[in-house]
Amino acid sequence: MEAPVNIAVLAGTTRLQRRSIKAAQFIAEFGRKQPGVEIEFVDPEDFIFPGDGNDPEGKDPRYSHITEKADAFFIVTPEYNHSFPGSLKRMLDSELANYNHKPVALAGVSDGNWGGVRAVESLVPAVRETGLVVLSWDVYFPWVQNIFDDRGAMKPEFEQRYNHSVQKLYDELIWMAKLLRSGRVELYKQR
Ligand SMILES: Cc1cc2nc3c(=O)[nH]c(=O)nc-3n(C[C@H](O)[C@H](O)[C@H](O)COP(=O)(O)O)c2cc1C
């Protein structure tokens, strides 16, 4: 039987009042409903990355294990000053080889009209440099404070829109994760 597709859903920030965590949790819960998929939810708050870079002392072994095991990534980033938060960058920078030839889907979040599109656009060259393969479309959560209730549940009027767009993204991500997983086996056999 085919091994489950393991997807690491990365939340983008750590501040106490953070709202993008609701979008990240929604993405993770949505992924758990996909057949043949297992989801690892990664909250940067739960990890410690001493210093900078990806030297052994700059890694968190738990994050190393998660990224090594992952077949694919789904990053949910809010927009901070037209970019993505430093905690997400620090986390991403702590690994390199574990990302290579794996697909990544991106989601943007903001409390205004833009939905984090500039955060996502600035994330694309960074994740590409790590060897991740970026999907050609994304999902956005503009006015995030209006989409989820206080407990983090999506309000019913948004469900149709996000069920459609997030499902489309997962279909593509899972398909690519399977292709690249077998592709990596072939590639590493030749090396
Ligand atoms: C430091 C900081 C910078 C921000 N910069 C932008 C920005 O450039 N563009 C934007 O649309 N929203 C910006 N925002 C608003 C955030 O997108 C919004 O607060 C969002 O909820 C942040 O995610 P979080 O709540 O998970 O931290 C900024 C928020 C913070 C805290």
Helices and strands in order, then pairings?
Layout: E1 5-11, H1 20-32, E2 37-42, H2 61-69, E3 72-78, H3 86-93, E4 102-109, H4 117-130, E5 132-134, E6 139-141, H5 144-147, H6 156-190
Parallel strand pairs: 1-2, 1-3, 3-4, 4-5, 4-6
The structure holds flavin mononucleotide.
Low-confidence stretches: none
**What proportion of the residues is helical, as a percent range?**
40-55%
Question: Count of helices?
Answer: 6
| Rg (C-alpha, Å) | 16 Å
- The helix/strand order is EHEHEHEHEEHH
* Ligand set: flavin mononucleotide
Structure description:
The chain is globular. With 191 residues, it is α/β, with parallel strands linked by helices. Helices cover 43% and strands 18% of the residues. α3 links the parallel β3 (72-78) and β4 (102-109). The longest helix has 35 residues, at 156-190. It is built from six helices and six strands; from the N terminus they run βαβαβαβαββαα. The relative contact order is 0.18. The model has no long low-confidence stretch (mean pLDDT 97). Strands 1, 2, 3, 4, 5 and 6 form a six-stranded parallel β-sheet that branches. The protein starts with a strand and ends with a helix. The structure holds flavin mononucleotide. Residues 13, 15, 18-21, 78-82, 109-112, 114, 144 line the site of flavin mononucleotide (FMN). Residues 13, 15, 18-21, 78-82, 109-112, 114, 144 line the site of flavin mononucleotide.
List keywords for this structure.
single chain, 191 residues, alpha/beta, binds flavin mononucleotide
